[in-house]
Amino acid sequence: MAIVTSSKRSRYFAESSRYLPGGVNSPVRAFQGVGGDPVVVHRAEGAWLYDQDENGYMDLINSWGPMILGHAHPDVVEAVRTQAGKSFSYGTPTELELELAKLVVDGIPWIERIRMVNSGTEACMTAIRLARAHTGRPYFIKCRGCYHGHADPFLVEAGSGALTLGHPSSPGIPEETTRYTLVADYNDLQSMERWFEEFPESIAGVILEPVSGNMGCVPPHSSYLQAVQELCRTHGALFILDEVMTGFRLSWQGAANIYHLDPDLVCYGKIIGGGLPVGACAGKAHIMDLLAPAGPVYQAGTLSGNPLAMTAGLTTLRLLQLQPEIYDHLEQVGRTLETELLKRFAEKGQDVQVNRVGSMISLFFTDRPVGDLSSALTSDRQSFSRFFHHLLAAGIHLPPSAFESWFISRAIDESHIDQFLEAVRRF
Ligand SMILES: *Cc1c(COP(=O)(O)O)cnc(C)c1O
What backbone phi and psi angles, to 5 degrees, belong to 101? Predict the structure, then answer.
C-alpha cells in the first residue's frame, strides 16, 4: 500500500493554514503533538480512512469516538439519506427527538429526562448551570487532566487538545470566570475532600469523566467513583458524570452501569449522534425540569434535536442495543491489542503502560503506572511520536497525541488486528 507523499500533505496543509487558524477546525487534528502534516481524508468506510489518492488507513480515531459501528454503516447511511429528503431542520418538535429520548430514558434507569444539544461542550455547560441553579451554590469541582469541552469555566488544567498543545489553561478567560472552578486530582479522593472542607455548602457539584480519555485512557481506581458519589451526597452536591466519551461505548448504559453508579446528571456526546453533531444533558427529572420552558434555567439551540442528527443517533443506538455482542467484540479486540502491545514491548525490554477499559486504550511510554495527570505526563512523547509515525507508515492511524485514548470500532476484525500486530512487531 503506497503512503501519500508527505510533500503533498505539506502542500495541502500550508494552504489550509492560510485559511484556517493552524490549518484545522479542532486543534489536535494538526499533528502538533507528533510532528508532520495530517492525513487529508477524502472518504471512509468500515475500518478504513482513505485519502485523496485512495491510500487506506486503519482507523483508531473513529472521529474521537462517535463511529463505534465503523464508517458509513449501511443502516445509518440509509436512515440519514431518507431523512435528508424530508428536509434537514424544522425548528419545531419532531417524532425523531421523542424516539431518541425514549430510547435513552427507557433504557437507562438513572435518566428520567434528556435535553438534546449540539456538542459535548454544550452538554457540560448545561449540566453545570443546572447544578448551580438546583443547589444555589457557585463552585464546582473538576479533575486535573479531564476535559469537559471548551466552555470558559472548564478550561482550567483541561485535557485533550489543550493538554497536547501544552496550554491546559487558556488565555482569554478572565480570572473571575474560573474563580468558582476547583481542581482536584483524578483518582485522589482526598484532593476532593479538601475542597469540600474549605467550601462547605458552597459546592454545586463534581463533574468528572468516569474513565478519563482525555489525558490518554486513565481508568478509575477500584471504588473511587463510588466514593466521589458518596462525597457528593454527604455534602448535598450533584454527582455529574461526563459520559461524552464513555456513554454507549463502555456499555450501552455507559460507565455508570459498569461501575454501579447513580449519577444526578449525565453528559452525552459523540456516539449519541452517530457521527452527526449531537450532545445531551440528562438526569433526574426534578433537576432537569428546571430547564426552560419547564423551569427558569435558560438553555436553547436553533439546531438542537436536528432531525438528521437524531436519525443518525437513533439508528446507531438501536443497532448497539439490539446487538449487545458488539460490546463483546470490542472487548475482545481491545484485549488482544493490549496483550500484544505488552508482549512486544516486553520483548524489546522497553517500559510501557497499556491502560484500557473495553474499547478505549492508550499506550504510555513510561515505567510508572498511569492513574492521573502527573503520571500520564511522565510518558515520553518522542517515543510516542516515533511509534505513531511507524504505524502511520504501515497504514494505521492512531490519534496524533500521546494523551488521547484510541477508539476501537465494530468494523475492526481479525484481518485488521493482524495488520496492526504485524506493524507493532516491526517497531
Ligand atoms: C469530546 C468530549 C467533550 C466535548 O465534546 P465536543 O462535542 O467536542 O464539544 C466533553 N467531554 C468529554 C469527556 C469528551 O471526551
Answer: -60, -45
On whether residue 1 sits in a domain, the answer given is no
213 CA closest ligand 1 atom index:
15
pLDDT > 70 in the chain, percent:
97
Of 284, 303, 322, the residue that ends a domain is 322
- Is 405 within the bounds of a domain? yes
Question: Which residues have CB under 6 Å of ligand 1?
Answer: 119-121, 124, 147-149, 209, 213-214, 242, 244-245, 269, 279
For 241-300, how does the pLDDT look when each residue is reduced to its tens digit (9 = 90+)? 999 999 999 999 999 999 999 999 999 999 999 999 999 999 999 999 999 999 999 999
Q: Ligand 1 centroid vs 304 CA: distance in angstroms?
A: 16
Give 241's contacts (C-beta < 8 A, 6+ positions apart): 207, 208, 209, 210, 254, 255, 256, 261, 263, 265, 266, 267
CA of 209 to the centre of ligand 1 (A): 10
What pLDDT score does 319 carry? 98
- What's the mean pLDDT in 21-30? 94
Distance CA 122, CA 150 (A): 9
Query: For position 220, which CATH number holds?
Result: 3.40.640.10
Does 284 participate in catalysis according to the annotation?
A: no
Do 240 and 171 have their domain in common? yes
Q: Is 53 a catalytic residue?
A: no
Both 273 and 360 in a single domain? no
The answer as to whether 136 is a domain residue is yes
Probe residue for ligand 1, chosen from 211, 270, 357 as the CB with the greatest number of ligand atoms within 8 Å = 270
pLDDT tens digits for range 203-216: 999 999 999 999 99
Q: What is the pTM of this model?
A: 0.96
Do residues 262 and 346 share a domain?
no
For residue 17, give the C-alpha cell.
493554514
Atom of ligand 1 at shortest range from CA of 146: 13
Same domain, 39 and 124: no
Q: Which residue, 279, 307, 322, sits at the end of a domain?
A: 322
Specify whether 270 is catalytic.
Answer: yes
pLDDT at 7: 82
